[in-house]
């Protein structure tokens, strides 16, 4: 087990600057997920930790030892890839034990370790099969088994579930989480899937254009995004964003969506006194913070509006209903029976206590 410290790390491919000054301290035993859109540099960062890429600048330390000049195999990390990379001519047991045989471990020890890893992953019955006789999910379990038997200081995962269908992906995600709970080894996991990031991570590191945009526990990023980028990346369906103006009235403040006549009053203290009247802002609200209005008066911090429903997407117990706020399509996550058809006019409660506000120019949170 080991912690990982990354200091001022840069990676250039020729003139292209893929990782642009990353500082990151990963404590021993933590499950860290590197997430971000395609091309943000997350795989490059992972591969540099593994030693598959050389750092252009900066330092990587594993368990207090600087590893920049160490070969991958001397770093004591195990990597699981998207494409499994199993040997087709070897049975599952041989595939899992391959790295141990290469290190000349005694046969009985190899068998014991392979047996333990297979039991942990529920693939004991498959040990005698060849990779071609396995499903995608079973192959990925074998690839993970091969990493486990090495008993590494750190596990590195590079989009390990991308090749699986949706149901298997859900299943394997739980397996990987359970595995971490059991063995408590430091894990660093790359994905572009925000659900995978939210469900697996002790800490999410959200990257954009080679730098860290925000890092922290998943709910911190979800509830207190530092920017529109973070707010839009996490959450499905996405947060809705409405170009608006901040309106000050005495000690209070409100949001006036562009082109709308009625301001939406903000809860007291929601916006600091430093933000002046008339500032252009982006008002962000998540689907789950909009509900069909009940009979009584709205609760404090709730703005009530009339809306015409344009589109209804039922998911079973809930329905996503699209309406327009100042011309911008916004999704509301309603109870299935609260909305029935497009064209319906309903009254909605927007929970402004939970809404986000961003400076329209910088897109940073206010
Ligand atoms: P994805 O989710 O698409 O894998 P990523 O965030 O993992 O994206 P990286 O693979 O780290 O992105 O790549 C970051 C940037 O560096 C990309 O613009 C990519 O084109 C570039 N890049 C990666 N490897 C090389 C290479 N060997 N030579 C030149 N450019 C590279």
From TrEMBL:
Single Gene Ontology MF annotation: ATP binding
Alphabetically ordered keywords of this record: ATP-binding, Nucleotide-binding, Sugar transport, Transport
Pfam families noted in UniProt: ABC_tran, OB_MalK
ABC transporter domain sequence ranges: 4-234
InterPro entries documented for this protein: AAA+_ATPase, ABC_transporter-like_ATP-bd, ABC_transporter-like_CS, ABC_transpr_MalK-like, ABC_transpr_MalK/UgpC-like, Mo/tungstate-bd_C_term_dom, NA-bd_OB-fold, OB_MalK-like
PROSITE patterns referenced in this protein's UniProt entry, alphabetically: ABC_TRANSPORTER_1 (PS00211), ABC_TRANSPORTER_2 (PS50893)
Listed PANTHER family: BLL2173 PROTEIN, MALTODEXTRIN IMPORT ATP-BINDING PROTEIN MSMX
Family named by the database record: Belongs to the ABC transporter superfamily.
NCBIfam families linked to this entry: PRK11650.1
Protein name as catalogued: Multiple sugar transport system ATP-binding protein
Organism of provenance: Labrys wisconsinensis
């Amino acid at each position: 087990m080991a912690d990982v410290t990354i200091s001022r790390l840069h990676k250039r491919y020729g003139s292209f600057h893929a990782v642009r000054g990353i500082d990151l301290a990963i404590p021993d035993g933590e499950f860290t997920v590197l997430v971000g859109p395609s091309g943000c540099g997350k795989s490059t960062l992972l591969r540099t930790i593994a030693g598959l890429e050389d750092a252009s600048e900066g330092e990587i330390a594993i368990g207090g030892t600087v590893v920049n000049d160490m070969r991958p195999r001397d770093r004591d990390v195990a990597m699981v890839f998207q494409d499994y990379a199993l040997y087709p001519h070897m049975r599952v047991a041989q595939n899992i034990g391959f790295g141990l045989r290469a290190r000349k471990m005694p046969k009985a020890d190899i068998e014991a370790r392979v047996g333990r890893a297979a039991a942990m992953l529920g693939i004991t019955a498959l040990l005698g099969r060849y990779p071609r006789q396995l499903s995608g999910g079973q192959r990925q379990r074998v690839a993970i088994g091969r990493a486990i038997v090495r008993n590494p200081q750190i596990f590195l995962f590079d989009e390990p579930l991308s090749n699986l269908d949706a149901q298997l992906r859900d299943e394997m995600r739980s397996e990987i989480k359970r595995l971490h709970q059991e063995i408590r080894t430091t894990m660093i996991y790359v994905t572009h899937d925000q659900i995978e990031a939210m469900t697996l991570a002790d800490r999410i590191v959200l990257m954009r254009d080679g730098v860290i945009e925000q890092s922290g526990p998943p709910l911190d990023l979800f509830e207190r995004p530092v920017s529109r980028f973070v707010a839009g990346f996490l959450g499905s369906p996405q947060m809705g964003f409405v170009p608006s103006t901040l309106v000050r009235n005495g000690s209070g403040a409100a949001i006036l969506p562009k082109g709308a006549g009625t301001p939406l009053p903000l809860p007291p203290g929601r916006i600091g006194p430093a933000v002046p009247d008339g500032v252009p802002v982006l008002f962000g609200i998540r689907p789950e913070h909009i509900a069909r209005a009940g009979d009584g008066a709205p609760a404090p911090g709730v703005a009530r509006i009339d809306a015409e429903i344009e589109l209804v997407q039922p998911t079973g117990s809930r329905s996503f209903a699209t309406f327009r706020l100042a011309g911008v399509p916004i999704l509301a996550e309603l109870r299935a029976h609260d909305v029935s058809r497009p064209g319906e006019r309903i009254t909605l409660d927007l929970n402004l206590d939970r809404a986000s506000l961003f400076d329209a120019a910088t897109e940073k949170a206010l």
